[in-house]
From TrEMBL:
Pfam families registered for this protein in UniProt: SBP_bac_3 (PF00497)
Record carries keyword Signal: yes
Descriptive protein name: Amino acid ABC transporter substrate-binding protein
SMART domains in UniProt: PBPb
Length: 274
């Protein structure tokens, strides 16, 4: 056989062996983390392969806001999303979006998930997929420290509470027989309570925990809480069931490892994931 032909055949054999070796590396378990993340991105249908793109407001303290010192995006929801992305071996990119436009952006495929204390409701479940809840909250009656006259919602009969007239807490207060003093929000309600101008205020447990974490000297306490809970979770379109399954596994691991509890302690002084 001519020498040139022999060299050509040897070259083709070597090239074929190299291609097979590369294919084996790419499909095996020993691939790099980046390769795994990119493959996961394909499986999850991510906006950008290897990156979890997360919508959040960035103006919703203590869940999603900018640190006054560093200017960094921080918050309970931000850290939960970061921990989930880390578990999945993905980079993370936040897109700050106003609440009024956040679901439209999800529908349009601008991001993969919303992390912004999205409550699970029957109406939303008809249109979206949700992860397992990572925040559990209840309604609470807040009174001045040492006030033993209120220990249940029945005790609000004939009492005065401070409530925003557009909130569901206003409805609960009136249903419980309370007289309602109209306020614009939590800060004004607490001020009236501490001044002794109202007997109590009803609000979300997380709002109370955030306030006492930031104001530890505040002489207020929880007198009673609702049986019903509000569950918040990560929200996805119905096109991403594989991503939801993976996120649920990540959240379960973060819960078992105590990571969710640590994040809750950091922002609320206690675990708020259950």
């Amino acid at each position: 056989m001519p020498l040139a032909r022999t060299r050509t055949l040897l070259g083709l054999a070597a090239a074929s062996a190299a291609v097979l070796a590369l294919a084996a590396c790419s499909s095996g378990d020993g691939g790099s983390g980046a390769g795994d993340a990119e493959g996961a991105g394909d499986a999850y249908g991510l906006v950008k392969a290897g990156t979890l793109t997360v919508a959040t407001e960035g103006t919703y303290r203590p869940f999603s806001y900018h640190d006054e010192g560093s200017g960094d995006l921080v918050g309970y929801d931000v850290e939960v999303a970061e921990a989930v992305a880390d578990k999945l071996g993905l980079d993370i990119a936040f897109q700050e979006t106003q609440w009024d436009a956040i679901f439209a952006g999800l529908d349009a495929g601008r991001f993969d998930v919303i992390a912004n204390q999205v409550s699970i409701t029957p109406e939303r479940e008809e249109q979206y997929l949700f992860s397992e809840p990572y925040t559990v909250s209840r309604g609470v009656i807040v009174v001045n420290e040492g006030d033993s006259s209120i220990s249940s919602f029945d005790d609000l009969e004939g009492k005065t509470t401070a409530q925003s007239l557009t909130s569901n807490w206003y409805e609960l207060a009136t249903e419980s027989g309370a007289q309602v003093e109209s306020v614009e929000g939590w800060a004004q309600a607490v001020a009236l309570l501490q001044q002794g101008r109202v007997d109590a205020t009803i609000n979300d447990q997380l709002t109370f925990l955030d306030y006492v974490k930031a104001t530890p000297d505040a002489a207020i306490e929880v007198a009673a809480e609702t049986d019903d809970t509000s569950l918040s979770a990560l929200a996805f379109t119905k096109k991403k069931p594989a991503l939801v399954d993976a996120v649920d596994e990540a959240l379960a691991e973060l819960k078992d490892e105590g990571v969710l509890a640590e994040i809750g302690e950091k922002y609320f002084g206690q675990d708020v994931s259950e």
